Amino acid sequence: MSDEQNPADSKLTTSKRRWAAEGKFLTGRISRPETERLPPGQHLVKNWPVLDLGQQPVISLDTWRLEVRGLVETPLDFSWTAFQTLEQSTKVSDIHCVTTWSRYDNEWKGVSTRDLLDLAMPKPEANYVMLTSHDGHTTNLPLADFAAEDAILATSWEGRPLTRDHGGPMRLVVPHLYFWKSAKWLRRIDLIPADHAGFWEKNGYHMYGDPWREQRYSDD
Ligand SMILES: Nc1nc2c(c(=O)[nH]1)N[C@H]1C(S)=C(S)[C@@H](COP(=O)(O)O)O[C@H]1N2
Ligand SMILES: [Mo]
């Protein structure tokens, strides 16, 4: 897609807004990760589709920054070099996108969100996070979910640096929620007291987004 396009007006964005209004893809089923690996209404893919607002920002490692702000004891500011010195973790997880594709066994390498939070030290009043990316995408989730055991700030996928189309040089991966919560090109993490809607959440998508309970769209 062209770079001049307003992301909010892209064809995919328009379709996804319509799907939210129509409740498209909803099966009404509930499943449990312990017994079923594929959530209701999802189908398995072997490739890895690219989904974004239509603008894939070019971020040079020289100017790359990650900020952690809001309700933390220690606000953080990383350059790329400083980020590489943090403890590195590997996590293997499945992807579930709200547009109904799932992809199994993705190997991510990077900094676990728990390790990052250990450095930032959330204040007791911090209950949610708002994520802001270089393309203007925002998304919200509870701090407890951001801090999930397998959540990671990924810089590598399947042993190779994360490519720009998939959110490189660094994206979040929160595998137990629909993949729109997994911000690509992440630049800022704000810890906040109460929940606020991000981009898709303002456009008809669920505030939480649990694939196992098929929380694709908001109720209102
Ligand atoms: N910054 C940013 N992050 C984003 C998006 C986006 O448009 N911008 N799209 C979300 C959606 S809807 C999905 S399904 C996944 C897609 O990631 P992929 O392109 O690597 O498959 O990224 C999520 N994170
Ligand atoms: Mo998505």
Structural overview:
The chain is α+β, with helices and mostly antiparallel strands. The protein has one domain: Sulfite Oxidase, Chain A, domain 2 (Alpha-Beta Complex), CATH 3.90.420.10. The protein is built from five helices and eleven strands. Strands 1, 4, 5, 8, 9 and 10 form a six-stranded mixed beta sheet that branches. A five-stranded mixed beta sheet has the order 3-2-11-6-7. Strand 4 (89-96) and strand 5 form a beta hairpin. The longest helix is centred in the N-terminal third of the chain and has 12 residues, at 11-22. Bound molecules: the ligand Nc1nc2c(c(=O)[nH]1)N[C@H]1C(S)=C(S)[C@@H](COP(=O)(O)O)O[C@H]1N2 and molybdenum atom (MO). The ligand Nc1nc2c(c(=O)[nH]1)N[C@H]1C(S)=C(S)[C@@H](COP(=O)(O)O)O[C@H]1N2 is lined by residues 48-53, 97, 133, 135, 137, 166-167, 179-180, 182-185.
